[in-house]
Amino acid sequence: MSIQLGVFFQGVNFSTVWSHPDSGSQTEFESFRRLIETAERGLFTAFFLGEGLRLREHLGALHALDVAGRPDAFTQLAALAAITRDIGLVATQNTTYNDPVDLAHRLQSLDLLSGGRAAWNVVTTDNAWTGENFRRGGYLDHSDRYSHAADVIAIARRVWDSRDPAGIAVDRQAPQWGAAPAPFQYDTGYYSVDASGSLPRSPQEHPVLFQAGDSGEGRDFAARHAEVIFSAHNTFEAARDFAHDIRARTVAAGRPADDLKIFPGQEFIIADTLAEVDDKVRWVRENQVTPATALAFVEQLWGTSLDGHDPDGDLPSFDPVQAETGETRGAGFRAAKALETATAWRALAETKKLSLRELVIEIGTRRGFAGTADSIADELIPFSEQHVVDGFNVSPWLVPTGLDDIVNKLVPAMQERGIYWTEYPGETLRENLGLRAPLTRRGGAGVQTPTAAAPEPADAHG
Amino acid sequence: MGERTALGVLFRVLEMSTSPFAVIVDIDGAGSHPAAWRHADAEPGELLSAAWVSANVSAAERAGVTAVTFSDHPLPPRDVDGPTARLDAVLQASFTAPLTSALGLIPVVHGLYTEPFHLATQTATVDTASLGRAGVLIEGDEDPRIAARHGREPLPARLVAEELTDVVEAIRRLWDTWEGDAVIRDVSTGRFFDPAKVHYADFEGHRFSVRGPAILPRSPQGQLPVFSAHSGIGADVVLVDAPLDASLGAVREARAAHPADTRVILELETALDRAGQTGAERVAALDEHAVWAGSGRARYVGNAEGLARILVSLTDVVDGVRIRPAVLGHDLDELARAVLPRLRDVGVFRSPLVGSTLRESLGLGATVNRFAEVSR
Ligand SMILES: Cc1cc2nc3c(=O)[nH]c(=O)nc-3n(C[C@H](O)[C@H](O)[C@H](O)COP(=O)(O)O)c2cc1C
Q1: Which chain B residue has its CA at the smallest distance from A113's CA?
Q2: pLDDT tens digits along B121-131
Q3: What pTM did the predictor assign?
Q4: Which residues contact A392 (CB under 8 A, 6 or more apart)?
């Protein structure tokens, strides 16, 4: 079975090395062009953009150490649609600070402009800090984030299902081009909308729905609504356990187990010879975790400035000044118990004889694959044979050349082993992913059809 | 046009360096005539396709017009003969950015019920992707059905101008939040950007506030040219709707109501003679299906030479026109073939140059970053 590949252009975090001479702009169009053309040459399934609607802060000031700056996802993907033919275009968009009808219409526009290659990675970021950039402010209860997201998706599907394509004139003598679809109403509990979709469906009918969110609630949400789940579980055991869990939840939601495809995030560090692997990994890690980044990482837990502290020395001898970490820095850290975590870090540093910076490299960087193209391709065989993933979402650590080794070396090695396709199998993203029709557009027996009008399972509204 | 002396032509050419005459073409479905789709060079169902969008925009670039606008409205057209749907205008502009290299790209956005933060990022993204060729045309319609589409409270008509003024100011502040040289990649301090050169927008409007900074660094133009038909909201370019014979007065009125450096552009519907048919015959044939109602807007129906004469005379009055062709492909072809060359011949119009920004094509001056000033 072919493992698929996507590329995740995250636009934040220290995993992107910006100090290398080959590191290009994070926002200029040429960087995106270079990256997506390489991905398409490597027969990648999809190109992903992350979303963050507020510039990150650290200890009350702008966080300046990592790459920063991102285009609007749908807008950027529309430009990329014009220069590509096969690759899917996935926009991360949260359900809290985007207006559902507007979001659905823009996404459907992208789907038409790209000939059926658009997708939406549904995320539920809801903090009031992000809300300070928006009219509604921080209006949503965190516990309602997924029930609200379900409402937003239901509205989007109503928009996409509004237009009966058979109603559009087939010749220029018809009585009219086509009547406007009837409006619908929907109350989310936070606001109600009264609107109508207007565009016809694309060749893939609906944009593909991705989900990224890892809580039990997030996984159940994916099992009910999504078609691809983007996770962080990328080692073999973690991916296998995650796949078991997700497939069970999908079946419990009344869908076939393979209705939800699994794409963990992944990182590859490829060296020419096995002897060079360790050096290359060390080089990448040291450029990801600069001395300043290592201190900032620890400051995040300690809750105070460590200015003057030696990053190559030990962890601070005093205890964190906060009880819990804040939520704005991002996943992994949210509401961590500071003293408990600090104690664990100290123990790990002690056992493994790690400096502060080495510790941050140990716990703060991704568990990816490192090796030669052949050794990595060998390691990937069980992922394919045991079908613990459908694909990986690659985060290149260098922009825009970070896919070159993967496409030039790893892809051919995977193809030789029969675990990577040699041409795109379909014309749309939905076809390339091997997905069925959208959930609201399945007739026939055997598959539950949760139409837009059907009530949510009772727990969805909390 | 023989009446123009050589000296007059020279004077015009010199004057153009400060205020060039802009010819902008609106891209909307099959054209501005409600039955245009019946004569379009595309099947009815293809009017909402990438191929149709790129065909028209490429034709506009080949014609050498200054810019195109992409019409849009939050409510799909109802009860009309023609298309009852449009592709999102910002996405059309962005889609055509890599397919063009000199043409200005100006999407219509709706300002009243959308998020200013998103509008700022979306339009700056088009500017970045087009290497500085984006503008934005801000519309504001208080129709309560648009409020309902966004799940918001309807705005009373008397507050529209106030709200749009706030929206324009919020967007402009966001566009300035990153100074042009904020990304420093300084290995010695480990800093990717210089936090002293990235600013909070801290906009407090009547009904919303925006903290900022923008999530996208400064775009090539920084401040995109802002167009609007609404008076006094802080636009760089004001669009004026008036019948041709009243246009002089309307333009004067618009100039009097705005700062001296505001550009004024006249809206102009056109149907030209083409392929052995007069403009009037073409309109009459379409009018059998749906009447092209006069909207109090300037309209020219006739031959190319006549339109060229009108445009030449308008160059003394306005800073440009936005042409709404009756049938997109056909009238745009005639414009390219027989109108624009006449304007070029007498030196009143220049096509935008590859590599120039829309601000440059419009003759708008350089801008000063409002935040950089206070931080120095
Ligand atoms: C692999 C992965 C990628 C994510 N990318 C984004 C992103 O780009 N933007 C965002 O706002 N949230 C992102 N998230 C956060 C989730 O969307 C989600 O909102 C958050 O994790 C809270 O949901 P949870 O409690 O179910 O995890 C991502 C999460 C995961 C697991």
Answers
A1: B50
A2: 999 999 999 99
A3: 0.95
A4: A3, A4, A5, A6, A234, A263, A264, A265, A266
